[in-house]
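INFO  loader      accepted 1 record
INFO  loader      residues=264
INFO  predictor   begin
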Amino acid sequence: METVGGSKPENDFGHLLQTDFEAVESAWRCLSEVFAEHADVRLEVEINNLGGESTLTEYNKALTSLMLPRMADFSEASQKRLEAGHSLRILDSKSMSDQEIVNELALPHIDEFIDGDWRDTFSDLQDLLTMHGIPHRRNPNLVRGLDYYNGTCFEIKLETNVDGVLGQSQNTLLAGGRYDYLAAILSGDKKRARLPAVGWAAGVDRLCLILEDLEQASTQTRLRVPKTGLAILTIVNKQDSSEEARVVRKAAYLLRQYLQVDDV
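INFO  predictor   done
INFO  writer      dumping tokens
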């Protein structure tokens, strides 16, 4: 899922809030449909706020200055990131020794570097998720594995007590975030206007493996595949667009029946 375009990020944080919520909510609903028949599965959204370009630059500098004295203690992968100036990515390293060092260093919180607009937008997003019953928690070390993310980033993780299902290190099912600066990075022109963009992708192979494990654990489990469809939606009231989009996704199968085709 991807949403690209709209108002400039610097000028319309209302647009960012709306599209951020659409991204997280659509991802959550998709996985909720996949696991709807599995009562022993719990999904949770981990979410973080990376702020704007200035936040990322200043926070990365602060982290680098604190991590460099301990460079030899980090894993080889994290040492390379530190040498390349990508210290932010070390925060969500999967190495246990790296995480121990991060905890020992008592690094500053990214919120100390985020300005009011980005902070307020993220706070409003969390309020919307709570309002719509989407379980979530803030993970300040979640930065995603790519350097072009800014603003909201998120992952959806699975928790289950069923034996034989993928382990804790493989429980991330879906991940995404905002990347308003990607177009400028790819063009090589950092002065290029920012292009608002947010999206997510799911690990289909991992989902299939988990579903197979769950079905093997319970012969009564029935796979429920999300209904697919296509709709053209005319938005009259911008504030209502999120609710309308949810209704369209949930009832997309009606369109398929109306068109009398198997795949839309």
